[in-house]
Amino acid sequence: MITSGLFTSNDSTWTTPPDFFAELHKEFNFTLDAAALKSSAVVPNYLGPDHDLLWRRDALQVEWTGATDGWIFLNPPYGRAIKNFMRKADEEAKKGAKIVA
Asked: Whose CB has fewer CB within 10 Å in the chain, the N or C terminal residue?
C-alpha cells in the first residue's frame, strides 16, 4: 500500500531496521555511525546533531577517516540533505574510508 507519507520529507529521521543492521554489522563490524542521533546510533562511536561533543555534531564537517579506522555505517537523513551526505561519503571514500550506505 502506498501512502502520501512516502513522498514527503517532513521527518528526516528514518532508523535502520535492527535485523537489517545486525546482518550488515556481522559482516562489516562497524566502528562509526556517521549520521545518527543519540537515540538511534547503532554503534557507540557516532556523529550527529545531538552528540555531547560539539565537534561531533556536524558530520559533514568532521573527517570520518579521523573519527575511526574501521568500517563506517551511513544511513543518511532522508530528504534534501541526502545528497550532501552522499557527497561527503564519496569524499571520505576517496581518502580511504570504508563506508556502507
From this structure: N
**pLDDT single digits (tens) 39-93:** 999 999 999 999 999 999 999 999 998 888 899 999 998 888 899 999 999 999 9
Backbone angles phi, psi at 73, to 5 degrees: -100, 135
Amino acid at 60: L
Spell out the long-range contacts of 80-84 with Cβ–Cβ below 8 A and sequence spacing 24 or more: 80/9, 81/12, 84/60
To which H or E segment does residue 73 belong?
strand 71-73
Nearest to 75 by CA among 47, 31, 35, 24: 35
How many other CB atoms are found less than 10 A from the CB of residue 90?
Answer: 12
CA gap 26, 24 in Å, rounded: 5
